[in-house]
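Q: What residues go here?
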């Protein structure tokens, strides 16, 4: 699946949308993802099934793919190939600020590149290796250039045997999906919405407006065009995204389906339950707030007893929840 093209460093949902039915196959990018996770992730993740997290990671991958479902030029298909625990955690670097210890993302990324970029033992289905950490990450934004450090290097897809990135995820709520989507976009040539030279106009909304991901879970038109330009520049090569990776599970996942199959509810999951936690199977009453958010209500509450429901800090409905106009909820927004 791999051919190493060093020049890339320089130049370079869970169902098919209506657009994909007529889009040229050459405009489809298929990426195989491999997740390695650390001990901190294991300490807090609650969905260890059959002694692995592949079901959770498959749904996480589907959640990230949905950020690209409305792309005007490309079809982005993401597949979880497999996952495993990181063998050598001495490669993980940390920084302490006050009482909080963070994963030092730039230094750790450098170590991971040394492990995986030219690793001949990786399956040919693997295009990108992501570390999934249970520690919050310390990244850097250059004040001088606006460059981001600690995330997957821009336009480095198909370089070596695998590109590398890092996400933080709590192993419960799929909160790493947005940062996963940000780094897939970076790998595929998306410009940042930061108003800097050779980037896109400044925006406080779209996915690429912040190193953590913007409030709007979609790409700006400018970022979409930059991905299309990158794609056109390299499409004639024998690229890693042109074949179809074999998934760890037969079916793709989404958070809403994942929770539904396990009879879990966002209101009982939001307070960081610990490993061993079992979902109750009950559906707590909620007071909807817009299309894709809801206030949690206390036990026994009904829709007519608003006083029993919270009045602030609504929870996002699970990504993939159907919403108005045949759309889907992504990151608390109907898109």
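A:
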């Amino acid at each position: 699946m791999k051919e190493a093209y060093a020049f890339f460093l320089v130049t370079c949902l869970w169902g098919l949308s209506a657009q994909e039915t007529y889009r040229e196959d050459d405009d489809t990018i298929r990426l195989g993802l491999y997740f390695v996770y650390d001990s901190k992730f294991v300490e807090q993740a609650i969905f260890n099934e059959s002694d692995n997290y592949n079901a959770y990671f498959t749904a996480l991958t589907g959640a990230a793919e949905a950020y690209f479902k409305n792309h005007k030029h490309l079809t982005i298909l993401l597949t979880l190939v497999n996952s495993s625990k990181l063998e050598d955690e001495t490669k993980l670097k940390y920084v302490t600020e006050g009482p909080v210890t963070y994963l030092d993302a730039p230094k750790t990324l450098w170590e991971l590149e040394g492990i995986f970029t030219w690793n001949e033992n990786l399956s040919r289905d693997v295009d990108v290796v992501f570390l999934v950490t249970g520690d919050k990450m310390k990244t850097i934004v250059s004040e001088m250039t606006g460059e981001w450090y600690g995330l997957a290097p821009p336009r480095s897809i198909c370089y070596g045997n695998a590109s590398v990135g890092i996400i933080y995820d709590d192993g419960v709520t799929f909160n790493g999906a947005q940062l996963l989507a940000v780094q897939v976009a970076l790998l595929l040539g998306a410009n940042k919405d930061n108003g800097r030279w050779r980037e896109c106009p400044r925006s406080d909304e779209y996915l690429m407006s912040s190193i953590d991901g913007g409030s709007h879970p979609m790409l700006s038109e400018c970022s979409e065009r930059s991905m299309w330009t990158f794609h056109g520049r390299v499409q004639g090569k024998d690229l890693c995204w042109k074949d179809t990776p074999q998934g760890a599970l037969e079916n793709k996942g989404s958070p809403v389906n994942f929770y539904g199959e396990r009879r879990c509810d966002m209101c009982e999951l939001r307070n960081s339950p610990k490993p061993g936690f079992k979902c109750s199977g009950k559906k707590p009453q909620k007071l909807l707030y817009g299309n894709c958010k809801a206030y949690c209500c206390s036990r026994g509450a009904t829709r007519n007893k608003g006083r029993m429901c919270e009045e602030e800090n609504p929870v996002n409905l699970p990504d993939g929840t159907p919403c108005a106009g045949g759309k889907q909820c992504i990151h608390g927004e109907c898109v």
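A: Context that may help when evaluating the design: Residues 257-334 form one domain. The chain is about 20% helix and 20% strand.
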